Amino acid sequence: MENTNIIIVDDHKIFRDGLIMLLSNFNFVTVVGEAANGEEFLELIKDVEPDIVLMDINMPKMNGIEATKHALKKYPELKVIALTSFADDEYIEQMISAGVEGYMLKRSDIEDFEEAIKKVADGGSYFSAEIIKVISRNLYKDKERKSGEQLLDKFTSREKEILNLICKGLNNEQIAELIHLSPKTVEKHKSNLFQKTETFNTVNLVIYAFKNQLISL
């Protein structure tokens, strides 16, 4: 795959150094900058053009939520993967609303970081299994929510197939190749999924699917 330029934003230097060392194992990744908080990051990004930002949430001066909102407003093509120490309900929905393409725990294995970066760089999304469990758990807070089986009735078999592949982090081209359709046709099915689920982007569609148990982990 093509080289992926990355900025690391975290207020703990020892974690940044460790992550830089971890990412040095990947020949497709170049760390082009690091910042200790959201303010530093927004200054840095004026001079550096990353493909992906690995963004901590809790930081002084400006947290990851605000930094992500500001950055994506100015640089909409930027992709952000949120990093967190704990799978905390409070922050997950805020970061997803801010526009992140991925969400993972800092203690994730090296293979998880590799998979996350590759999927997000290719236009897909990535969520740690622990994060997905927290999102799914919120389902039970709403007693009136329809069961996943009932909700699935409104999708065609092809839409269900594509939804499952989207939730695995595949992009349009990968899905098209796998199920022998054109990328344009996949995009059409994806648009129908957005309309039927009342979501507006891939990440929100994935969250909807997990929350409503439309697919299994």
From TrEMBL:
Residues 5-121 form the Response regulatory domain. Coiled coil: none annotated. CDD domains: LuxR_C_like (cd06170), REC_NarL-like (cd17535). Residues 148-213 form the HTH luxR-type domain. Keywords: DNA-binding, Phosphoprotein. The keyword DNA-binding applies. The modification 4-aspartylphosphate is found at residue 56. One of its GO terms (biological process) is phosphorelay signal transduction system. GO terms for molecular function: DNA binding. PANTHER family: TWO-COMPONENT RESPONSE REGULATOR (PTHR43214:SF43). This is LuxR family transcriptional regulator.
